[in-house]
Design goal:
alpha+beta, 8 helices, binds iron/sulfur cluster, binds FE2/S2 (inorganic) cluster
Length: 257
């Protein structure tokens, strides 16, 4: 693949088209001319859809919302990589200058059994919402806004929690994992609360219920491929998985007491 480019590019995009969850899909090939290297990847898909609508074809269904790398909706596999070729970059933040004139780009939905295809490039990621819901509430009194230093939090713990809280729930970790494991996502959510004093009272129940929900949704197990961390647009570290495994083991032992 050739690198940066200044003029308009001619591209072949091969897009996964699938009319619904229960029908077979296939790649369809579209020729695009004079694609600006300054477009984002999603803007390129917008242009493709305008082209398809003008020619009387169904536009390609794809998910997006913020287009700022925050919401986690733009979940695509681009040339075999979840969120495409750039490290720590969501699909909406990827730019066409990353591709070269004459390139062929394959675009397909996340391939995870627990994320069924809804249509074309859209998958149903509500399994993640159910795992979050299984985590339940924290019992810290919200009341009036407390003084910022009323609950002392060690700097290391605050930084670990903030790093884990950067997870946007996009699902790229599960899509990149050969086992379709969602452990990086679940570990980020578990760490983000259990590292803080406000999250401690429910920590055992939370990790047991979230891991139980993850298993019930049909996600696989981690066997240390680290593909999740490589694909994660927010740089969530696999150390969170080790932390969650320890947290889970302790919670199981305490539940037996
Ligand atoms: S851990 Fe990373 S890849 Fe997985 S859902 Fe969170 S942000 Fe996405
Ligand atoms: S559209 Fe929100 S993260 Fe990409």
């Amino acid at each position: 693949m050739s690198e940066s480019h200044t003029g308009g590019m001619n591209l072949t995009v091969k897009v996964w088209r699938q009319d619904g969850p229960d029908v077979e899909g296939e790649f369809k090939s579209y020729a695009m001319r004079d694609v600006s290297p300054d477009m984002s990847f999603l803007e390129m898909l917008d242009v493709l859809n305008e082209m398809l609508i003008l020619s009387g074809e169904e536009p390609v269904a794809f998910d997006h919302d913020c287009r700022e790398g925050i919401c986690g909706m733009c979940s695509l596999v681009i040339n075999g990589q979840a969120h495409g070729p750039d490290a720590e970059t969501t699909t909406c933040q990827l730019h066409m200058r990353r591709f070269g004139d004459g390139d062929t780009i394959h675009i397909e939905p996340f391939r995870v059994g627990a994320f069924p295809v809804v249509r074309d490039l859209v998958v149903d990621r509500s399994a993640f919402d159910r795992i979050i819901a299984a985590g339940g509430y924290i019992s810290a009194n919200t009341g009036a806004a407390p003084d910022a230093n009323a609950t002392p939090i060690p700097k290391d713990a605050a930084e670990l929690a903030m790093d884990a809280a950067a997870c946007i729930g996009c699902g790229a970790c599960a899509a990149a994992c050969p086992n379709s494991a969602a452990m990086l996502f679940v570990a980020a959510k578990v760490s983000h609360l259990s590292e803080l004093p406000q999250g401690v009272p429910e920590r055992d129940r939370r990790v047991l219920d979230m891991v139980g929900s993850m298993d019930a949704e049909g996600f696989g197990n981690c066997t240390n491929h680290y593909e999740c961390m490589a694909a994660c647009p927010k740089g969530i570290d696999v150390e969170n998985i080790a932390r969650m495994n320890r947290e889970y083991a302790v919670a199981v032992l305490r539940a037996r007491d």
